[in-house]
Design a protein that fits this description.
The complex is a heterodimer of chains A (about 120) and B (about 120).
Chain A lengths: L4 E3 L2 E4 L5 E6 L6 E8 L3 E9 L2 E5 L6 E5 L5 E5 L8 E8 L10 E2 L3 E5 L1
Parallel strand pairs in A: 2-11
Antiparallel strand pairs in A: 1-3, 3-8, 4-5, 4-9, 5-6, 7-8, 9-10, 9-11
Chain B lengths: L3 E4 L2 E5 L4 E7 L6 E7 L5 E8 L4 E4 L2 E6 L4 E6 L8 E10 L5 E5 L3 E6 L1
Parallel strand pairs in B: 2-11
Antiparallel strand pairs in B: 1-3, 3-8, 4-5, 4-9, 6-7, 7-8, 9-10, 9-11
Classes of the chains: A mainly beta (about 120), B mainly beta (about 120).
Amino acid sequence: KAGVTQTPRYLIKTRGQQVTLSCSPISGHRSVSWYQQTPGQGLQFLFEYFSETQRNKGNFPGRFSGRQFSNSRSEMNVSTLELGDSALYLCASSPRTTSGRDEQYFGPGTRLTVT
Amino acid sequence: KQEVTQIPAALSVPEGENLVLNCSFTDSAIYNLQWFRQDPGKGLTSLLLIQSSQREQTSGRLNASLDKSSGRSTLYIAASQPGDSATYLCAVRVMNSNSGYALNFGKGTSLLVTP
């Protein structure tokens, strides 16, 4: 079974631009979560999507948004990029069983550099 | 707010040593705890998943324990090898009031195993 895939793997953008990152979960997984990793703050939760609905959101400004499609693929968008948005963006998928005890599987990440 | 702490932040050991990595969390209302490994610039590889009702899990040379009541987990690595050099992250899965999930991560322990 193929793992979580993220595209693109690397991205360089200019301050003020916007960017869209994509995540394809493991086949059969219905939940997709996004995380931002920076050297200073570590790994921080952005949001979780399940059944095309945002179920949880971390403490990030409204410039960070996302969506999920009917095939469970997800995109996240960052508008008006700032230098501080430079980070590794990681996507995780899980089956989203009713027990809540799912293991999370992470993709390789998208490295975003804002200049 | 759930806080996850990992001690030590960095560790250097000679090959062959057994070692213990520590993780503590402030709120015992967790669904599970996962240990991950991250190589530089890469995504996260899941090592062990411990459900909230379990006390420990083992995989090869790795053993993870969980004491939910005291908010502690340990990752034991036996007979360390240079290939074990990486950053080890622990994360607890929590749920918000809207039945949305998130992983709260520690800052990680950077492990270096020297030949």
